[in-house]
Structures are given as structure tokens and as C-alpha cells.
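Ticket #4471: structure export looks truncated?
Reporter: QA, pipeline team
Priority: medium

Steps to reproduce: submit the single chain below to the structure queue and open the exported record.
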Amino acid sequence: MNILVGLLGLGFLILIHEAGHFFVARAVGMNPRKFYIGFPPAVAKTKRNGIEYGIGAIPLGGYVKIPGMHRPAAGDLDMYFGRAIEERPSLRRPVDDLRARLDESDYPGALEDVRKLAQALEEDKLSPAAAKAGERGVVDIEDALAPDAYWRARIWKRVAVIFAGPAANLVFAIAIFSALFMSLDSSYRLGFELRGTNEALTTTINKVLADTPAEEAGLQAGDRVVAIDGEPVNGESIRPTIQASEGKPLILTVKRGTETVQLGPTRPEQVEAPGPLASVGESLDFTWYVTTQIGGTIGRLVQGEGREEISSPVGIVQGSSDALEQGTSQYLTVLGLISLSLALLNLLPLLPLDGGHIAFSLLEGIRGRAVAREVYERVSAIGIAVVLLLFFIGLSNDIGRLGS
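Actual output as written to the record:
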């Protein structure tokens, strides 16, 4: 059951991402043609105001079709109509007429030729596969030639539509973190941070906060906490032990180099739960901290290090499932972290990621003319290769973690 909840959580985050694209596209006059909950094929659909709304058979995430992501090119015709021409050579002439129009950038004439080609396809008897490819070609090329096509829009509109997906994930993450901070009860702390690994917190002090009981007691960065009030502790039990004291003085036993040192007794200070505004501030601070950590991971990957820190959807779902076993708050924290990760990774300047589309839109704005379709395709091939490489590295890591 927890695995299912983890899958649905990941799907929900993808749906939020696509909804961001959808609503901003509508706001700037770039009318989407389809919006699905889940991925096609559709199990149910309806059409309103020119937009097809549907429920996909694959119940993960969402799907939005924005018209004309690329300028229509003559080379697209072979992919859509090649099979139809093989079956009915008489279709070659209308396809060649359309090809010539696209080569000349005569888009009004091309739109007229597309409609003529659609009529010719209806009149000829084709195999189901050829007919389906032809119908899809007519729809896609008509969309690309439409006045509200993505490639026709001003640069700021294109950037806004693409950035809206990651932005929706970012806003959701900040909202989740803010709600979690607001839900906190009063707590007790000594004022230190523990070092952590990919798997868990350690007992080693990473940082001692200024003007806190930990500093007054003489705790130092690098100390390793081995016991509290004589009871052995590990990285996961230190904080609950401090909370359970309810402010009563504690004696810490730490390893400092080769020596064992006792510190205290020291009384934990009570920390009140933050209000709404303070919770938003804490959420923004936490979001920035996680962002810098993810940025550091990406930097290490560029240097050929840190491959063990990558995870695939398998690990993401497993992590969500494990968090759910520890409670709703832990699960929501992980869900917020995944949403933030989706936002940041999608902003990498690689096609076909959102960041790649933003980078190319800005480049076209600076150049004052479109980037050649061939360049898009070559850069997309490189980007897809990088994404697939990261996926397989993450998958191998997840299989290793699950196996151990």
C-alpha cells in the first residue's frame, strides 16, 4: 500500500508541473490542445472550448499539449506521410506541394495545402497505421501553423509558459515546508547540528550554534555524542532523547579525538513553534539550503564524483514509501523535497528539459532569429543521452540499495 501511495505522490507532483504549463499557456493566449490527468491513451475525454480534457490510462502525472512547440519543417512530412505515400503514390503530389510551401516559409499557403492533404487522405483507402500517422500529421502541422503556436509567440511568453512547470513544483514545495513548520509543537534543543550521510544522521557534531546551551556546555564541532544521561544514543535517537527531557538538565558523553569527555549538566532551551510568517521564512531558508545541496551534487557529478547520490524513480518511490511508515509529516517532507528536486533538475539547460527550452528561447531572443531545427534535434539527442545516463546510474544505485 505504501508503494502505491509513493507512486501516486510522484504522479501528483508531475501533474502539478504540467498544470503550471497549462494555466500559464492559457493566460498568455497560447491555447493548449489537450490536458490529461494521467498519460494517454484516454479512458475518458471531453472537449470544451477547443481543449480536449481527459483521463489517461496510465495513472501517473499529467499531460499537456501546447501547439507548435517547433516551427514546422519540410522534413516532418516524411515521418507523418511516408507510409501513406508508399500505399497510395497519388498522395505524393499534395505532400510535395506542402513541402514547397514550408521550404518557402509560406505559412498561409501551407495551411491551405494541409487542408487539401487532409481531404485527400480521407478519400484514399489506407491501412489503419498509415491513416493514423497521416491524421496525426495533419493535426500537428495545423497546430504548428496556427496563430497561437508556441514558436510564434514572443520570447517572454515562451519563457513564462516553460518556467511555469518548475515554478509550480517550487511553490508547492515551499507551501508544504511552510505548513510543516506551522504544525510544529514547542520543542527543546541544545543547539547543534549533526552530520548526515545518504542513509541517516551520524552522532558527530557538524556545527554548534552561537548563544545556545550546547555552546555554553563546551560542545565542539567534530565531537561524537555517545550517550545522554548515561544512555547510549545513535544519530536517530539523539533528538528524541533531548525532546523527552522536557527541559530537564542533561549530561552529554562525547568522544573528542581519543578522549571521552562529559559535558554538563546543561538544560535544553524551549523553542516555540513559528507563526505563519515565520514559517514561510523558515521554509524559504530550508528551500535555499536544499537547493545549494542539490547544486553541490550536480557540481560533483560534473567533476566525475558523487554518482552514488543519484536516484531513479524507483528510489524516489521507495524513499516515499519508507517515509510514510515513519508518519505523515515525514512523508510530506519527502514529497516536498522531491517536488523541489523536480523543479531544479527540470531547469538544467538541457533539451528536452524545460531549462533547455528556456535557454534556446533566450538565445533566439538575443540573436533575433530562430535556431535551426537541426540544431534543436542534435542538442536534444545529447540531452536525452545525458538524462538516460543519469537514469541508469540512479537505477543501479537504487537496485544496490534495495539489495542491501
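Status: closed, not a bug. The export was complete when the record was re-opened. Leaving a note from the reviewer for reference: Strands lie at 34-48, 51-65, 187-189, 192-196, 201-208, 224-228, 231-232, 250-256, 259-266, 269-271.
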